[in-house]
Amino acid sequence: MYAALRGNPEVAKILLSAGADANALIPIENPDDERTWSALVMAVFVDQRYASGSYAIIEMLLKAGADANPPKWGRKTVMQMAINYNRRRIWPLLLRAGSILPIHPYGENSYYDETHRTDPYLLKIDAAGGFKAYEKAHLTQLLAIFAPKFTHLVPPELVARFLEFSFHVGFY
């Protein structure tokens, strides 16, 4: 799953479809290295030159059953790494998959002991009581706006599905 480190979704797709373990722990530098990363951590940590490919890889890994809270690396969770590296686009993917919002995004006892509590998006998730609650509140707000305008065209349950898909409910 080193494909995750270079943001290569085509290779990652082939590996996952061939049965690669989405939660396999991979040595960081050499086969004898005791320090390991999961492919998900690699995809979050990927060099920004390959970031567009890593989004697709993260989606694939999570759909393949990757743990959204894999073992910590350097005392950081995968969500802490995503916050630390300002990978905002992947926050909702991780949160929807069950990643836990950290108290300290830079690691425990870090010199950069800031919290995610200053980001407006993460503040909304905290205020709602978690990502699932935020997603539900977001959909409820959108339904209040759009359902009256579309229920004469389609059944109300289809309006909700349309809104979930069209507006990426919970993603902003």
UniProtKB/TrEMBL annotation:
Keyword rRNA processing: no
Name assigned to this protein: Uncharacterized protein
The ANK repeat ranges on this chain: 1-24
Alphabetized UniProt keyword annotations: ANK repeat
Keyword Repressor listed: no
Stored Gene3D superfamilies: Ankyrin repeat-containing domain
